[in-house]
Model the fold of this input.
Amino acid sequence: MTIAEVSKKYGLSVDTLRYYEKAGLIPPVNRKENGIRDYTEQDCGWVEFIKCMRAAGLSIEVLRQYIELYARGNRTLQKRKSLLVAERDRLKERIGQMQQTLKRLNYKISVYEQKITACEKKLLK
Amino acid sequence: MTIAEVSKKYGLSVDTLRYYEKAGLIPPVNRKENGIRDYTEQDCGWVEFIKCMRAAGLSIEVLRQYIELYARGNRTLQKRKSLLVAERDRLKERIGQMQQTLKRLNYKISVYEQKITACEKKLLK
DNA sequence: GCTTGACTTAGAGTACACTCCAGATATTAC
DNA sequence: GTAATATCTGGAGTGTACTCTAAGTCAAGC
Done:
């Protein structure tokens, strides 16, 4: 799979795909003899994983660390798990906060609806 | 209330408080004769609101627009509501995505737990 | 009266995450 | 064979949201 195809498939720019690889968010991508990237299924899996984690707000740095640990093999299992647990907890926290804010926005919107209805009635009088 | 007190109360730096005001995220703060900010209860309310919205990921620009509409008074009620509805929908979307990712992380962590247990057993053999 | 410390401003600097550019090379279409 | 298109690299540029600096003002304590 070419970089353009992967770009289209996941909705990430080719620049971003190269950036992620260079930054170590994705293990080095398979190349053809001429040096051109040829993404395997596994490469695509990593792209999808990183896209998902980035969308949830995990930082470039923490994902880079995770891939680094992954590259160091089985003896980093515990460390990788700890990293994921820490990020999971942070994510949970953020979601909780955002749900509070969602409620608040919903309430605010309902208040606006009442105000707008009140204003319309005034105009009809 | 001085800027230092508000900073402490809401956990925002004094720089950030001044930045928010300058950027129009908060209506101009009350001043003493000598030009020093003297936050009223209402000013604090705005700070708290903006802090909450920022934490949920609403952009500086959209909050600036909201405050601008607010400053223009009653005839912007409908526009303000539309803005809040749009942001509420975006927030909902983000929360949904993050909840998916939370599930995925939890699953990944459980897989790590299994792998780690398996590794320990091997070592004990 | 003078130092200390909190406040003021405008504007420069920083961190993060891309995004774009220039110049080179390679493949495809005609 | 040559023009167009896609890829490559290193490195510069951009947008967002702060964060810091410099230079100045003011009130309180010694």
